[in-house]
Amino acid sequence: MNQQEQTPHTTHHTPQRIAILGAGESGVGAAYLAQQQGYDVFVSDFGPIADHYRQQLEDWKISFEEKQHTEELILNADEVIKSPGIPDKAPIIKKLKEKGIPVISEIEFAGRYCDAKIVGITGSNGKTTTSSLTYHILKNGGVNVGLAGNIGKSFAYQVATEKFDWYVLELSSFMLDDMFKFKVDVAVLLNITPDHLDRYDYKLENYAASKFRVTQNQTAQDYFIYCADDPETIKGMAGRKFDAQQLPFSIETKIEPGAYLENDNIVINTQQEHFQMSIKELALQGKHNIYNSMASGIVAKVLELRNDTMRESMGSFKNIAHRLEFVANISGIRFINDSKATNVNSTWYALESMTDDVVLILGGVDKGNDYDMLKDLVKKKVKAIVCLGKDNKRIHDAFEDDVDVIVNTASAQEAAQIAFHLATKGDTVLLSPACASFDLFKNYEDRGDQFKAAVREL
């Protein structure tokens, strides 16, 4: 996006050196693009590197190390690209900052070599669903579009290997923290709720400031799409200046231009002709998904997609794995895998969309969770809680007065079996842990896969 701002490489003899910290999807993709652009590249991961990423680095003849950070090989870089997972308080990052070596994200780096237009989607909840849905609508509408960021193949790798006119990027706050000159043409901010506060000195306003970075560098030709019903978003907008054209969405009030709800119809009204669709026809059900569909629909309208294309796509979309994913119906009991719910808010959304009695599987690595916001929904809808984690004390403390049965389990298989026994015909067994998965599983995908396998064995 920012090619004109790039200073040409003045040195002809030695290419500039780039060190990349973290050899996951984003790091390995960035390494490939940097090598392609003629940089001297070194990749360093403090942990072990997964086999397929190690294989790629070897195939491309990119030098790397694992299980350590060799400082003299990193602190001699002209620039460092860091994985979103590495916090600023990591010792190596502190040393880089002391030396004044710029530390940027893979997205920032790839953006320099990409002239496609960008839809950037962020928010505490619904990012992946909204990014996937937006991509689905645009692709079906004939747009030459890629999907990247926090999802799928890395943006850098796609910039190196593909030629898209548009990208839909799912942007986490950690990615946004290390983005400076990068600009998105259409910014979407879904909501702001307490999450990852351990990375933001436990201050919600610091985390909110990260989210608002999605609008940085926008001009009057660009768009900012946000939820007018979200109190933290509205609070954060006060005292900030936005150059982009604003297109809010709401299910509480009629908003024009923007999107709103009228007699159970989503109405989207931008400079283009009105779009209207019954919420009953949406592929994604539940109140939070009305918001996600509105946000995606506004993006489609900004790109001037046809109403019938949009309606077809919004009605046919299949949600991503591990996000309220239907697994099976066994003896009249529905099993739902929502392993991607790694914070309390995601679990709140999942419970909010349930119509049956629920046996809820909760637990894992707790990021300082406040379970209070779940209490009302748990009282109303949950008949039993099955804990799936190494330390479940805080879940017991939070819900012992609201639920008759709280059971501890130590594997996905055990959790599925016990939940099955606690449920009766017409109930839903919901895996929506509200916690990270690293105590018992590799990641939330692994947790969801093990749960699905266990359910199919019942």
Query: What level of helicity do the residues show?
Result: 25-40%
Overall radius of gyration: 23 Å
What's the structural domain tally?
3
Name of the level-1 CATH class of the largest domain: Alpha Beta
Number of strands: 20
Strand content: 15-25%
Low-confidence stretches: 1-13
- As for the CATH topology of the largest domain, it is UDP-N-acetylmuramoyl-L-alanine:D-glutamate ligase
The biggest beta sheet is recorded as: 6 strands, parallel
Oligomer: single chain
Count of alpha/pi helices: 17
**N- to C-terminal separation?**
52 Å
Mean pLDDT across the residues is: 92
EC number: 6.3.2.9
Catalytic activity: UDP-N-acetyl-alpha-D-muramoyl-L-alanine + D-glutamate + ATP = UDP-N-acetyl-alpha-D-muramoyl-L-alanyl-D-glutamate + ADP + phosphate + H(+)
Domain Mur ligase C-terminal: 322-435
Binding site for ATP: 123-129
Describe the 3D structure.
By secondary structure, the chain is of the alpha/beta class. It folds into 3 domains: 16-104, Rossmann fold (3-Layer(aba) Sandwich); 109-316, Mur-like, catalytic domain (UDP-N-acetylmuramoyl-L-alanine:D-glutamate ligase, 3-Layer(aba) Sandwich); 325-456, Mur ligase, C-terminal domain (Protein-Tyrosine Phosphatase, Chain A). 34% of the residues lie in helices and 21% in strands. Mean pLDDT is 92; it is low at 1-13.
